[in-house]
Amino acid sequence: MREIQVREITAAVERLCQEANYFLGEDIIGALQKGLQEEISPLGKDVFRQLLENAQLAREERMPLCQDTGTVVLFIDLGQDVRLVGGDFNRAINEGVRRGYLGGFLRNSIVDDPLGGRVNTGDNTPAIVHLRLVPGEKVKLVLAPKGGGSENMSAVRMLAPAQGAAGLTDFVVETVCHAGANPCPPVVVGVGLGGNFEEVALLAKRALLRPLGRPHPQHFYADLEKEMLEKINRSGIGPQGFGGRFTALAVHLETAPCHIASLPAAVNMNCHAARHAQVEL
Description:
This protein is an alpha/beta fold. It is 40% helix and 25% strand. The model has no long low-confidence stretch (mean pLDDT 97).
């Protein structure tokens, strides 16, 4: 049994809050450079230039990529042979968020009650935590700050099994097209399929953590991702809604077993700044 002090969790979360908001991943940078080369719309090309310049300045100056520094979403894989000591795990996580956002001069966007006053908590807490118990004696933390503009364009639909791949594709493309410029395209589209009502939304969000453009390991679903991406990009919405070939940078699909009478589907989008950072303790 390995012991880990919860203060290590706090320190890791503090660091990840800032890294995720300051540093755009190399996979995203590569996709933006590809977009700059291949986009045919002059306005679209200009958007790609500005996004790349923004990412460079954010990295060099340690400033947020976007003014919306998001809700902190944490995906934690906790080894079953780990014993957390020295305090409360959830308090340690939120203390890390508090320190990360206040110390990093990141915008605080969380209100304490959705209807009753909507008072800002002042430190971007609490985080939303998804915890899995896994074999081993390590703790893996993946922190994804999720902006409101892209999150607001999410959708869940309980499809009939008979609708199949065609029905899923129609739902995904329709959702992205309905979103238009709201999620700040070019977007990364996370798609969940299977499970049940609550799991499918989590599948869609986890899909956004996959390295950009890495296809689904099953050829059938990899081909479906490609088909969805092509149809989305034929919409002509383009970068920031100005028209062009690149409405989405990638479509990532994650699946889970489901009930014989069900075909749950979900879409969760990230703007071009598909922010996340991770560490293993």
